[in-house]
Amino acid sequence: MDAPTPATGDPVAHRAVRAAVRLLDADTGRLEPPPPGAGRPAAAAALSAVVPAEGPVHGADQLATACRDAAARGTAVRAVGGDPDGVRVLAVPVTGRRGEVLAALGVLAATPRTFDDADATVLAQLAQDVATHLELAAGASSPDPADQLRRQLAIDAARIGSFDWDLTGGEVSWDDRLRELFGFPRARFTGPFEEFTSALHPDDVPRVSDALRRAVETCGDYEAEYRVVRPDGRVRWLKARGAVLTDAAGRASRMLGAAFDTTADHESDARVTRVLETMPSAFFSLDRRWRFTYVNARAEGLLGRSRAEMLGQDVWELFPQAVGAQFETQYRAAVATGRAVEFEEHYPEPLNAWYEVRAWPTPDGLSVYFHDVTARRAAVAEAEQASAAARSAAQRMRVLAGVSEDLTETLDAEEGVARLGQHLVPTLADWCVLTLLDEHGALRDVGSAHVDPAALPLVREYQERRLRALGPGSPLSRARRTGRDVVVPSGAARELCRHLLDERSREVVRELAPESQAVLPLRARGRIVGAVTLFRGAQRATFSPDDLLTASEIADRAALALDNARLYGAQQRIAEGLQRSLLTAPVQPEHLRVAVRYQPAAQAAQVGGDWYDAFHHPGGGTLLVIGDVMGHDVDAAAAMSQARNLLRGVAVTDSGAPGKVLAGLDAAMAVLGLQTTATAVVALLEPALGGAARLRWANAGHLPPLLRAPDGSVRLLEGPVHDLLLGIDAHQVRHEHELLLEPGSTLLLYTDGLVERRDQPVDVGVRLLGDAVAQLPDLDVEEVCDAVLARLVPAGAEDDVALLAVHVRTGT
C-alpha cells in the first residue's frame, strides 16, 4: 500500500482533482506540477506540491508516473498498472495558452475498467479550467500590464463576476460584472449580506444559505447554483464558487469568490426536459453508479413509481427482478463496450409487462428509452396461435384426405384400415394398434405402426399377444363395451400391466413404455366394427382435444368404410348367389363340347346383368344364349332372370329358330311390362354331315360371336344388318344368319365385361380377344375359357363377365 500524500497547495487545484475523481467515477486523482528548473513555466509556481484526491491511493506510483509521462509528452496517457488487480490510469497535460505544459492531471481506478475517449475529453476540459486558473493567478501578481490586460479580457469574455465577503463586518463587495448579473446599480459597490439573500429566488435561499454556512464553518470551499430575481422581475441562473480565507488565528475572516450566468444552460436543459416530458416514449438516465438521474412522466407511469421514489436510487435495488435478466446484462454490456443495445424483455410482477428497450452509454452513465410492448406481443402471440391452429387444421385435413384416399384406393376395406397406421404415426401417436370386430363378435388385430422402425418387432409381438392377454377391465374392453373413447392421460404402461394376464406381455409393454393412451372405437350405423389404440411416450404431451377430434374423425371414416364393405359384401353375395342360381350347368351333346364361365365384378354393385344358357331344343339341336341386361345391381339380376325364363319359354314352344326366339322374347317383354333393355345372341347348333355343325344365329345389339377355325384362324360373325336391342321396339324384325362349322371349330359367345374397360374401347378389346384366341394352342374348351379370362380380365374388374364356348367335336 502506498503512503498517502498530504494535500497541500492551491485550493482550486484540489477542487479540480476532486471533480475529476467524481466525474470519472475514479478512486484517486493527482495534479502533478513539472519538476523545478529553468524550463518550468511561471504559472506552475502556484502549485506548491502534489495534490492527491480523497480516498485510497493504492497504485499512486503508477498514477504519478502516468502524470509525468503526460506532462513530458504533452498528450493523454492511458496505462494499466502492473499489479494483478489491474489498476487503470488516465492522465492529461495541463496546457497554457501558449502551449506550454503547466502540469498534468490524472485519475486512477482501482477496479478493472477502461477509460475511453469520452473520459479523456472530460479530464481535458478540467485540465483546461486548471490552466486558466493558474494563468490568471500568475497574471494577478505579474507587473506586466499586458498580462493584466489579458487577464481582464479573459474574465470579461467568460462574463465572470467576483465578490468579496467580509465575514467579520458582514459587508459584501461586488465587481461591476457581478452587479450587472444581479441587476444592481453599478454605482453601488458594497452592501450588506442581506442584500445578496434578498435577491435570491425564495425557493433557493435555504439551500444557498446552508452551502455558505458549511463553507464558513469548515473554512472550506463554497459552491452553489441558484436563481436571482432581478429588479425588473426577470429570473437568471447563476453558478457561484468561493473559498474561505482565515486570519492568523485560523478563524474564517473573508470569502472570495466568483459567479457566472448559467441561464442559457438551464434553458437548454429545460427545452430538453420539455421534449422528454412530452415524448410518447418512456425515458430515464442512470449515472455510473446505476442511480436514477432523470425519469420522464411516461417512465413514471410504466414503471409504477414516482420520480421522487426513483431519483438518486439504485436501479437494481428498486427493480430487483431486473438483476440477472437481460436488463442487467444488456445495460452492463452497453457501458462496458460503449455501444448501444436493443432488446425485448419481460419484467414480472408487479409490472408484469414486456418492454422494448434501447439503451446507449453517455459520459455520465446510461440513457434508456423503452416502450411497453405487452399488447403487441400478445397480438403476435395470438396471431401465432391462430397460425398454429390453421396449420393444425391443414395438417388434420391432409391426414383425413390421406385416410380417405387409402380407404377408397383399395377394394379391401380391412386392408385400408390396417394401413391407417402410416397416417396416425407420428402425426397423432408414437405407435398404434388397429383392431377389427368380425361377424362373430371376435376382436382381431390387423395392423400396427411405430415411429421408430427398430421398435416395430416389439409392437408386433404386443399386437400378437395382447388380445389373448388382456382382461375384461382393460381400456380396449371398456371402449368396446361402452362405445366411447377411453383416454389414459398418464401412467398408461402401469394401467396396461394391471390388465395383462401374462408376464411376457407386461415385459413388452414396459419396454415400449407408453405414458398416455387413447382407445377410439370404430362406430358405424349404431354398431362397433373395430377400434384404434394410440400410444404416446413420456417425451410427448398427452392427447389434446384437437388430437382426439382428429383421431375420432379418422376412426369414423374407417368405421364407415368397414361397414360399407360389410354391406357391400352382403349385397354382392346375395346378387352373385342369385345370379349363379340362375346360371345352370350347360348341356353336353354328343357332337359338341360346351364350357361356360361367369366371373362377377370386384364390387358388389356391378353384379347382376350378364347371363348365359345352353339347353336342348325339343325340335333337335342345342340352343345357345348369351345376354346382358342393362344395369349392374340386384334389380338387374332380377330383370335378367325374368328375361332368361321368358326366352326359355318362347324357345321351347316354337321352332327354336333364333330370329323367332328373339322376336317372341321382345313381344313378351312388352306385354308383361318388363321395363328393361337387353342385348342377346341366340344360336342354334344342329348336327350336319361329316361331323360338322350347322349354326344359325340372331343378334339383338350384342357383341358378335367369335369363331376359331380348325386351322387356328379367327373371325367375327357379323351379319350385314345390326338389329336393335331388346326392349326398344317389340315389332322389330329379327334377322338370322347361317354358317357351317367344321369339326374342330370353336365358337365363343361373351359379354362386354370381357372386352370393354374405362381406358379401352370395346373394338380394341374385341381385337385383343381375337388375337388371344388365335395365339392359343389346341386346348380343351374348358382350358380355352380359363386362358381367355386370364389374359383379358384384370384383377379388380369393374364389370361382370359371362363366357360360353362351344367346340365341335372331331371323329363323332
Would you mind describing this structure in some detail?
By secondary structure, the chain is of the alpha+beta class. Helices cover 39% and strands 26% of the residues. The strands form 6 sheets. A 6-stranded antiparallel beta sheet has the order 8-7-6-11-10-9, sandwiched between helices. Helix 3 (117-140) crosses helix 4, helix 13 (374-409) runs parallel beside helix 20 and helix 21 packs across helix 22 (658-672). The longest helix has 38 residues, at 545-582. The protein is rod-shaped and about 170 Å long. The protein starts with 10 loop residues before the first helix and ends with a strand.
Radius of gyration, rounded? 57 Å
- What is the straight-line distance between the termini? 140 Å
Main sheet summary: 6 strands, antiparallel
Write down the overall geometry. Answer: rod-shaped
Describe the structure concisely for a colleague.
With about 800 residues, this protein is an alpha+beta fold.
What are its keywords?
single chain, alpha+beta, five-stranded antiparallel beta sheet, 31 strands, 39% helix
Write the layout of secondary structure elements.
Elements: H1 11-23, E1 28-32, E2 51-52, H2 60-73, E3 77-80, E4 88-95, E5 101-109, H3 117-140, H4 145-158, E6 160-166, E7 171-174, H5 176-182, E8 190-192, H6 193-199, H7 205-218, E9 221-229, E10 235-246, E11 252-261, H8 263-278, E12 282-287, E13 292-295, H9 297-303, H10 307-310, H11 315-318, H12 326-337, E14 341-347, E15 353-362, E16 365-372, H13 374-409, H14 413-418, H15 421-424, E17 431-437, E18 443-450, H16 456-469, H17 475-482, E19 486-488, H18 492-499, H19 503-512, E20 516-524, E21 527-536, H20 545-582, E22 592-599, E23 610-616, E24 622-629, H21 634-652, H22 658-672, E25 678-687, E26 693-700, E27 706-708, E28 714-716, E29 736-741, E30 746-750, H23 762-775, H24 781-792, E31 801-808
Antiparallel strand pairs: 1-2, 1-5, 3-4, 4-5, 6-7, 6-11, 7-8, 9-10, 10-11, 12-13, 12-16, 14-15, 15-16, 17-18, 17-21, 19-20, 20-21, 22-31, 23-24, 24-25, 25-26, 26-29, 27-28, 27-30, 30-31
Helix pairs in contact: 1-3, 3-4, 13-20, 16-19, 18-19, 20-21, 21-22, 23-24
